[in-house]
Amino acid sequence: MSHSSESGESDDGGDDQEGYSFSESNIEDALTSFREQWQRELDLSPKRDIAKAHSSKTVKIDVAYDDESIETRAKNLFLKGVEYEQSRKFYEATQFYKRAVQLVPDIEFRLYDSTKLKSNDESLEDLDNGVNNIDDNSENHNDKSEEESDLFIKLCKIINLNKCVCFPKFEQNTTHISALPIEIVLYILRWVVSSELDLRSLEMFSRVCRGFYISARDSEIWRLVCVRVWGVNCGTYAPQYQSWREMYLQRPKLRYNGCYICKISYIHDGENSFQDRFYRPWHLVEYFRYLRFFPEGKVLMLTSTDEAQNCVNSLKNRIPRDPSILIGYYRLHDNCVTLVLRKQEVQEITTYKRKKREPIHDNGEQTFHIEFEIQNHFRRMHSQLKWLSYTIFTKYRNGHEVKMCLKEPSVKEWRVSAIGGRYPPLKFTRVKSYIQESEVPLQ
Predict the structure, then answer these.
(1) Which of 24, 57, 225, 312 sits in a 20 to 30 Å window from 150, CA-based?
(2) DSSP secondary structure of 234-294
(3) CA dist 355 to 348, 349, 362, Å?
(4) CA gap 326, 29 in Å, rounded
């Protein structure tokens, strides 16, 4: 009995499985037929279904990116306003600006930030591409590599690709100097050089980055410098020099950001003592001579026993307060400098008190004519002035004139002569206080 029951149960289970598999096959057939019919309907009306699908997608996009669509609309309106403003249609431009601000109040700042980030990224990519292109071209073409070996040419090409002087290293909210056009940067450099020709500050400016290096090599700035040093008739740099800057560096010139100093010493005979007539004293006399040149052709000279720290400040102004300073003019011709100096006219203060008449001592009016030769001193170019001649003209009130002249002797007589032994060459020393302020730009 047990075996029959077990076999009966097993037979019923098999019938159930066969029925279940049959029902599954019917469902699959129904699904396939439904799919075929749905595909036929889609083929018959494709435009309607595509429009529905597109509308459903746009609804999802509008729901998901509603804020972004409003911002893009505001940006488009603002850009249209910019176009109308550039075409001088201000009324239409204000209408677009109002509509853009109503959608997004800070649309101008958002648009500026987005364009700034894009421009920085594109400029950095162009910078890398420009450097890579220069390297590739130098490897492929030997002739071009020789022409582009100059650092200035390479940096000019990179700056032209970037269309910007420099880039900020870190992000900042304030306006960076890279936002200024190259014309404004060059005008600022004219203030840096100033009328005092502070070219050392210009060279320090060129060490900051590649863009500043190119800006500091502007040919117009160096042409104005050469014109201010040698005058309007300075000529052109070609063919002797390659640029105005090289002309300024190589051609003999004077320096204006300091003064020329020399120490003069000599032995003076003393008087015998009444007690010991066999002993005769000697006195060592030491003093300093200072020369300060100005670009417009003016020169100051001071002779003093004081040290340089005390005397240099008195030569800062073109009209000095110290009456002992000689004022004159100079002229530069090749490597020679000719100076004409006179003492300052001191106004006498008249008093109304009656005094005894004292005998008038006529010292005469003195005029100093000096000629120097510009020389190099070790590695410093054009930093030394050698005496060539020293002439003193004295004119008295009675019309009598006296001339005392010391000229450059021969090589054998240099140490023996007065000008060779008593007047050593003047050496240039830079003074920081002369170029602390810039009053007038380079013109």
Answers:
(1) 225
(2) G---TTT-SSHHHHHHHS-----SEEEEEEEEEEEE-PPPSS-TT---EEEEEEEEEEEE-
(3) 15, 14, 20
(4) 120
| Assigned token pair, 103 | 């959608």
**Positions of E strands within 127-195:** none
Q: Can you tell me the mean pLDDT for 300-305?
A: 90
Q: In this structure, how many other beta carbons lie within 10 angstroms of the beta carbon of residue 327? A: 16
From CA 285, how far away is CA 267, in angstroms rounded?
6
Distance separating alpha carbons of residues 97 and 78, to the nearest angstrom: 5
Partners of 371 in beta bridges: 338, 389
pTM higher than 0.85, yes or no? no
Distances (CA, A) of 345 to 26, 324, 367, 370: 128, 10, 12, 20
DSSP 169: S
Whole-angstrom CA distances from 120 to 123, 179, 183, 293, 341 are: 5, 11, 21, 47, 59
C-alpha to C-alpha distance for 77 and 104, rounded to whole angstroms: 11
Q: Could you report the per-residue pLDDT of 408-439, keeping only the tens digit for each? A: 655 444 444 556 566 888 999 898 888 888 88
Q: In the predicted model, what is the mean pLDDT of residues 96-125?
A: 73
d(Cα 181, Cα 164) in Å, to the nearest integer? Answer: 8
For residue 31, what is the enclosing H or E element? Answer: helix 2-44
Q: What does the alpha-carbon distance between residue 369 and residue 330 come to, in Å, rounded to a whole number?
A: 10
Note the pLDDT of residue 355. 54
**Non-local CB neighbours of 97 within 8 Å, separated by 6+ positions:** 77, 78, 81
Within a 13 Å sphere around the CA of 109, how many CA atoms are in the beta-carbon half?
5
Each residue's pLDDT tens digit, 246-298: 899 999 999 998 899 988 887 877 776 666 666 677 778 888 899 999 998 89
Render pLDDT for 357-386 as a digit per residue (tens, 0 to 9): 555 556 678 899 999 999 998 888 888 999
